[in-house]
């Protein structure tokens, strides 16, 4: 993982209260549809691309969150493939991944970076 502290730009997206605990919302961030998930148990937010490469629809924010092998995942609401929320990697097909954006909570605000690991859709 690359850590650049000088050049990173955090984009303010919304308040933590705007998020659904253990679920996702979709945000349009500088033209990118981003699915943002809030997992209170981990006290963490995760941001991945909203586009589901299997169903070709912007639906991942509506997927069910869960935990597989200790990793937070979301299941596509269409064909149920699971995506690792930390990496964007599909669990059923390792050759497929969705963009995964750094995300954080700062002073009650949710912020992400658009420098995705993986290809932005
Ligand atoms: S930005 Fe979420 S559906 Fe269009």
Provide an overview of this structure.
The two termini are 21 Å apart. The chain contains no helices and 12 strands. Strands 2-3-4-10 form a 4-stranded antiparallel β-sheet, with no helix packed on it. A hairpin with a 2-residue loop joins strand 2 (23-29) and strand 3. The model has no long low-confidence stretch (mean pLDDT 91). It is globular and about 35 Å long. The chain is mostly beta strands and 121 residues long. The protein has strands at residues 11-15, 23-29, 32-39, 44-49, 51-52, 57-58, 64-68, 71-75, 82-84, 100-101, 103-106, 109-112. The structure holds FE2/S2 (inorganic) cluster. Residues 26, 28, 33, 58 line the site of FE2/S2 (inorganic) cluster (FES).
Topology readout:
Elements (H helix, E strand, L loop, with lengths): L10 E5 L7 E7 L2 E8 L4 E6 L1 E2 L4 E2 L5 E5 L2 E5 L6 E3 L15 E2 L1 E4 L2 E4 L9
Antiparallel strand pairs: 1-12, 2-3, 3-4, 4-10, 5-6, 7-8, 8-9, 11-12
Bound molecules: FE2/S2 (inorganic) cluster.
What distinguishing features does this structure have?
121 residues, mainly beta, Nitrite reductase (NADH) small subunit, globular, iron, iron-sulfur, 4-stranded antiparallel β-sheet, 3-stranded antiparallel β-sheet, binds FE2/S2 (inorganic) cluster, NirD, 0% helix
């Amino acid at each position: 993982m690359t850590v650049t502290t000088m050049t990173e730009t955090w984009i303010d997206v919304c308040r933590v209260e705007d998020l659904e605990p253990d679920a996702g919302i979709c945000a349009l961030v500088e033209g990118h549809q981003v699915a943002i998930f809030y997992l209170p148990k981990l006290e963490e937010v995760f941001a991945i691309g909203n586009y589901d490469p299997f169903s070709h629809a912007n639906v991942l924010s509506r997927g069910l969150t869960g935990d597989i092998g200790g990793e937070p995942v979301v299941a596509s609401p269409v064909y149920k493939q699971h995506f690792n929320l930390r990496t964007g990697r599909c669990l059923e097909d390792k050759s497929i991944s969705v963009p995964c954006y750094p995300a954080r909570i700062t002073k009650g605000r949710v912020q992400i970076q658009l420098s995705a690991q993986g290809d932005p859709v």
